[in-house]
Amino acid sequence: MNEERLLVSSVQLIQGHFELNVSETAQIKDFKKLFDLVHAEVKQLLNRDFSGLLNILYRIDVPEIKVKEILTHSDPELISYDLTEAIITRFREKAITRIRYSS
After folding, report:
1. Rg (alpha carbons) of the chain, rounded to whole number
2. Mean of pLDDT values over 1-18
3. What CA–CA distance (Å, rounded) separates 25 from 75?
4. N or C: which end of the chain has fewer CB within 10 A?
5. Which residues contact 93 (CB under 8 A, 6 or more apart)?
6. Domain coordinates in residue numbering, the chain
7. Rounded Cα–Cα distance for residues 35 and 41 (Å)
8. pLDDT, tens digit, for every residue of 41-93?
9. Which residues have C-beta within 8 Å of that of residue 85, sequence separation ≥ 6?
């Protein structure tokens, strides 16, 4: 599967759930940059609006068991990274499905 197409589709999906700056998302050239942008949002939500973060995780269908595992077993310093990884993974899965069935 074309990695660039997967990235573009993932960014489009993510924009609907996070308040990402459109000019910033237009500059995303790899999943590392996307991770960094989403991670900044996750850290902010984790510190200021935990229930809002949980709501987003529910809406994007990150498995509840995965969220519970991260919240209970991850090193406190790594929770935001682990949650971001789960979010990016879920959006990649959704993007793959979208691309596969749009052809």
Report:
1. 14
2. 82
3. 29
4. C
5. none
6. 3-102
7. 10
8. 999 999 999 999 999 999 999 999 999 999 999 999 999 999 999 999 999 99
9. 35
List, in order, residues 6 or more apart from 65 with CB less than 8 Å away: none
Q: What is the model's pLDDT at position 79?
A: 97
Residue among 42, 38, 61 at smallest CA distance from 50: 42
Closest CA to 60 of 81, 84, 43, 78: 84
What pTM does this model have? 0.87
Secondary-structure breakdown of the chain: helix, strand, coil percentages, each rounded to the nearest 5: 80, 0, 20
Phi-psi region of 40 (alpha: psi -120 to 50; beta: other; left: phi over 0): alpha
